[in-house]
Amino acid sequence: MAIEIERKFLVAGEAWREAAYQQKHFAQGYFNDSGRASVRVRIEDEAANLNIKAAVIGSARAEYEYEIPLPDAREMLASLCLTEPVEKTRYWVEHDGHTWEIDVFEGANAPLIVAEIELEAADETFTRPDWLGQEITDDKRYYNHALAFAPYRDWPAEPTA
What we know:
single chain, 161 residues, Hypothetical Protein Pfu-838710-001, 8-stranded antiparallel β-barrel, 9 strands
């Protein structure tokens, strides 16, 4: 079984942009709204895949991914998914021996920016970049599946002090 171990954070500021060395556009849609797993189709620039992830909140969960033909993915995204696609541009940033993935969301989820780090073990240590904000690993609202069904633009405003 494939296990994904990752932690998620909000991004504070724009300092990460100067260190970004690659970017790719993503559009993904979901075939289900509840249950034990999320099932999605994802287009990454000119490649496509089906992905199944355990519906578990936290830093480790089962994940399976299978490449599919791009025309099939476009058709699925346009006609079979339950919501509008979640769209984002992903940037890759190296920091102190780890690769960070920075997702800049578009459309209904703009201006949300989330950073993820994949780890070898749940207790692996890493250095926090200066641009890293609040950890959101255990907040299911920030998972892409949740953002498809409850976009960031529809969230109630946070109370101010």
